[in-house]
C-alpha cells in the first residue's frame, strides 16, 4: 500500500504474513514496513550464512524505539570492537560453570512453587511461570537485593514488553524518535522505574566493593569483569546488560515454559514418557545440574517446544555493507535482512508434519543436518543469545521439578498466539493441577 507498504498485513498477523511470504514467494522475499525495505530469509542455509557472516558485513540494525529504550547500548545492539569487548565481559556471567552454580537456585525456586500448589487447584499457567522465573532471575542476577521491589521492576518490564509488541505491529515503528505518544510516555515511565531500581543496586554494590569476581550472582560478575586493558563496564553499561539478561532469563523463559505445559497437556503419551524418565533418572529426588545431560527426553521436549513456539519469533535484523553475499550472490549494501524462527521452524521441508508436537524428532539417531540447522530459537553464530544455556537448563530443571509432582491439565481448546516482544498466548491459559501421588493411589 502507498506509504504503509506491507504494514497492514503484517500488523493483522505477522506469523501468518511470514508464512505467506515463505510459501508463496520463496526463500528470499523483499517486503516493506512503511519506508523501511526489508528482505525475509527463510532457507536455513541463507540464515546460517547471515549468522556466520562477519560483523562488519552484517551489522545489527535497530528498528524499534521501545527496544532501544529498554536495552540501551547492550551487547545485543552493539557493533564492531565495542560488541566484541562487551561480549567478552558479559560471557563469564552466563558461562557453563556459572550456570552450574545457578542450577540449585532454579530447582529451589521450582520446589517452593510446587509446595504452594495443591491437588485440583486452578491456576493461570502463564502467571505462575512468570512468578517462578521472576524469582529465579532475581536470585541469580541480583541475589536477594531487590526484595519487594522485584514486583515493580517486573511490572515495568511488562509495560515495556507490551508496548514493544504494539510498536512492532503498528505505526509506532514509523514515528520519529522525538515523537512522544501516550504509549511512549508509558515506556519512558517504565524505564525510569527500571533505571532507578537497577541503578540503586549497582551503586550499593560499588559502594560495598562487592564486584570482586567471586560473587554468586550475575550482577557481581558484571561489576567485576575487566577487559584486556583492565577497564570495567560503566554503571550504565552494567545496567544495560543486566536488563538484557533479565529479559532473557525471565520473560523469554516463562513464555517457553507456558507453551511447554500447553503442549504436554495436549499430548498425554509425551507427558507419560516424560514422567517415566523423571521417575527413572531422579527416583523422587530433586534434579541437579548433573542430571541435565541424563534427562534426554526432557531436553527433547524443551527443544520441540522451542521449535513450535519460539519465544523470540523474529531475529534482530541485520543491514549489509562491505560486499556481503548470500548463496554466492552479492547483496547490495544497505539491504536489511531478517528471519523468523517461527516461519522456518514450521517449514515442512525441514520438519515433516511441522505443526505436530513430536519430541522424538530430536532423537540422536533420527535428527538430520537440515532440521538441526533450521532450529534457531536463540539466533546463531557469534551473536547467539548469551543466555541460551541458562534458558535451556532452566526450562529443563523447572519442568523436571514440577512434573515429578503435578500434571497440569490445561482447559481444552486451541490457544492463539500474541506476537509482541515474546510469542505469548493470546488468552489466559487456565489449568487444573493433579497431584501425581494422589493419582497413582487412586484418590
TrEMBL record:
InterPro entries: Cyt_P450, Cyt_P450_CS, Cyt_P450_E_grp-I, Cyt_P450_sf, Cytochrome_P450_monoxygenase. Belongs to the cytochrome P450 family. Keywords: Heme, Iron, Metal-binding, Monooxygenase, Oxidoreductase. It comes from the Bacteria. GO terms for molecular function: heme binding; iron ion binding; monooxygenase activity; oxidoreductase activity, acting on paired donors, with incorporation or reduction of molecular oxygen. It comes from Streptomyces gardneri. Coiled coil: none annotated. It holds the Pfam family p450. Its cofactor is heme. This is Cytochrome P450. Heme binds at residue 385.
Amino acid at each position: 500500500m502507498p506509504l504503509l507498504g506491507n504494514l497492514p498485513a503484517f500488523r493483522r498477523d505477522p506469523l501468518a504474513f511470514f508464512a505467506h511470504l515463505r510459501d508463496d514467494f520463496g526463500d528470499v522475499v523483499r517486503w516493506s514496513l512503511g519506508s523501511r525495505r526489508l528482505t525475509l530469509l527463510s532457507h536455513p542455509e541463507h540464515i546460517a550464512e547471515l549468522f556466520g557472516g562477519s560483523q562488519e558485513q552484517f551489522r545489527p540494525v535497530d528498528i524499534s524505539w521501545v527496544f532501544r529504550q529498554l536495552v540501551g547500548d547492550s551487547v545485543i545492539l552493539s557493533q564492531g570492537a565495542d560488541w566484541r569487548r562487551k561480549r567478552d565481559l558479559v560471557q563469564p556471567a552466563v558461562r557453563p560453570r556459572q550456570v552450574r552454580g545457578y542450577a540449585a537456585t532454579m530447582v529451589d525456586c521450582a520446589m517452593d512453587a510446587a509446595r504452594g500448589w495443591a491437588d485440583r487447584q486452578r491456576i493461570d499457567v502463564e502467571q505462575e511461570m512468570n512468578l517462578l522465573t521472576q524469582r529465579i532471575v532475581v536470585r541469580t542476577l541480583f541475589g536477594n537485593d531487590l526484595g519487594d521491589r522485584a514486583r515493580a521492576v517486573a511490572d515495568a518490564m511488562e509495560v515495556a514488553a507490551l508496548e514493544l509488541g504494539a510498536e512492532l505491529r503498528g505505526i509506532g515503528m514509523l514515528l520519529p524518535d522525538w515523537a512522544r505518544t501516550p504509549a511512549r510516555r508509558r515506556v519512558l515511565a517504565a524505564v525510569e522505574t527500571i533505571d532507578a531500581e537497577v541503578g540503586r543496586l549497582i551503586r550499593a554494590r560499588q559502594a560495598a566493593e562487592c564486584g570482586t569476581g567471586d560473587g554468586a550472582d550475575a550482577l557481581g560478575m558484571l561489576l567485576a569483569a575487566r577487559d584486556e586493558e583492565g577497564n570495567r563496564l560503566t554503571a550504565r553499561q552494567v545496567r544495560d546488560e543486566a536488563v538484557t539478561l533479565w529479559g532473557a532469563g525471565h520473560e523469554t523463559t516463562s513464555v517457553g515454559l507456558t507453551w511447554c505445559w500447553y503442549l504436554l497437556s495436549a499430548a498425554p503419551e509425551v507427558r507419560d514418557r516424560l514422567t517415566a524418565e523423571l521417575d527413572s533418572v531422579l527416583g523422587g529426588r530433586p534434579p541437579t545440574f548433573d542430571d541435565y545431560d541424563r534427562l534426554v527426553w526432557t531436553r527433547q521436549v524443551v527443544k520441540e517446544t522451542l521449535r513450535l513456539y519460539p519465544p523470540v519469533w523474529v531475529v534482530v535484523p541485520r543491514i549489509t555493507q562491505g560486499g556481503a553475499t548470500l548463496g554466492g550472490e552479492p547483496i547490495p549494501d544497505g539491504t536489511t535482512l531478517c528471519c523468523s524462527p517461527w516461519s522456518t521452524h514450521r517449514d515442512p521441508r525441514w520438519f515433516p508434519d511441522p505443526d505436530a508436537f513430536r519430541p522424538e524428532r530430536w532423537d540422536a539417531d533420527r535428527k538430520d543436518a537440515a532440521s538441526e540447522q533450521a532450529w534457531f530459537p536463540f539466533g546463531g553464530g557469534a551473536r547467539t543469545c548469551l543466555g541460551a544455556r541458562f534458558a535451556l537448563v532452566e526450562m529443563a530443571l523447572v519442568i523436571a521439578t514440577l512434573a515429578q509432582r503435578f500434571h497440569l491439565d490445561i482447559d481444552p481448546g486451541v490457544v492463539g498466539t500474541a506476537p509482541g516482544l515474546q510469542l505469548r498466548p493470546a488468552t489466559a491459559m487456565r489449568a487444573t493441577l493433579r497431584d501425581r501421588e494422589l493419582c497413582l493411589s487412586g484418590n
